[in-house]
Design brief:
Pfam families: Pyridoxal_deC. With 461 residues, the chain is an alpha/beta fold. The protein contains 14 helices and eleven strands. The longest helix is centred in the C-terminal third of the chain and has 24 residues. The structure holds pyridoxal-5'-phosphate. Pyridoxal-5'-phosphate (PLP) binds next to helix 6.
Length: 461
Amino acid sequence: MAKHALSIPEAELKQLTATAAELATTYWSSLSTLPTFPSTSGPQTFELFTRPWDEAPRGSDVLQDFSVIAQHGRPSVGGFFGYVAGSGEPVGAIGDLLAGALNQNVTAWRSAPSAVVVERTVVKWLAEAIGCEGFNGSLCGGGSAANLMGLGMAREAKLPANEEGVIGGVVYASEEVHMSIAKAVALLGLGRKNLRLIPTDDQFRMRPDLLQEAIAADRRVGLKPIAVVASAGTVATGAIDPLEEIAAVARREDLWLHVDGAYGAAAALAVPERLKGLALADSLSLDAHKFLYQPIDCGCLLFRDAHFARKAFSNSGDYVQVFSQDSMEAFAFFDESMELSRRFRALKLWMSFQYHGRQAFREAILRDLAHAQTLATAIGKEPDLELLTPVTLSAVCFRHRSKNNQAILTRVIKRGRVFISNATIDGHFALRACFVNHLTTEADVEAIISEVIEAAGEVDS
Ligand SMILES: Cc1ncc(COP(=O)(O)O)c(C=O)c1O
């Protein structure tokens, strides 16, 4: 190998790669023995990982840092039920490593011919798996980025602002909508005051009648409604808004329909009847790093009509002009997404999906849904515990009837057997377990109840 400033002797590169593979497999084998949260602290991590970037090289010693970083990281173990945290399937991680090795810039066919076609194929698989045949789209960092792009398309479709700047525009979503929607509305210059939060029914789903009323009220005072965001799996309770009824309102009112399916849309692979109406969306977000178990950094925006993606995002200067006449060769993701340089996220999906096959993912999702039902049933049998919401997908919200639930949560996390998080239900603090984890066992689910009861015994009321 030619010598240059960053050159690595070939034998050493082989050794580095082998060591990295060994570190990863050793880590994966150790997962079942790890607590759900590491024993670490802010000062300790600061002490360990805040260091100067030296002039002199450390060479392969640097790989040894992995073990310390892993030791002070939060492991994706089977007993982790906080937030909506996918479990990081290893074949996907191998795909990520190989994607880094290829270093493709998946921005246009001519910069990454195979990778662009792989991504377009994977996006089609995702769309088809959830009943949205014919949709196109692109991969992105996560649900927040996909929601931002979806609402960017909505704004450009209904109230074009790329040239003149933003003038008004009202967006509607339920009170249970994820915070990324308020963030997107703010970033798009629509103003958070123009996000209407529509009340929900007793199952935490948006009320279409109140949506209709809110739109009418805004029109009466001269405002311009542009988009509705329906949630396909709210972050707190997993509620699925009545997609077909909301789509009917959006169609009648000529509004863009964006579905935030970051958490729940992928469940349509296993339980399509619960998510009827996804295909009525104009745009839809889906996180493969949640219910499809991929390593983090795997969101997807799907859209019905690529014309609106180009309207929102195409702004090619001379620098990136496309000359080919062939429709595949002329294709550019930079015309349909907010990123220019783009990593090869699709390789992990390609490898993971092909390695395991489709049925395995369906089964993993069904297993998570079953875990949620098992937990809900177990809560029902515990006199001290109360189930607070219906279990539509895999999020379970509950509370201890007499003890301080926030104190219980802190104790449960400290004990390290299971990790749960919290939600606010009807204004009250709730305990919450969410199953999007292919490593979870029946014993992990049972441990939620015993850990909460034991933690309750350790806290004052
Ligand atoms: C319903 C919903 N939408 C959007 C997001 C944001 O996704 P990400 O964390 O991938 O940006 C989440 C994350 O949990 C979510 O549950």
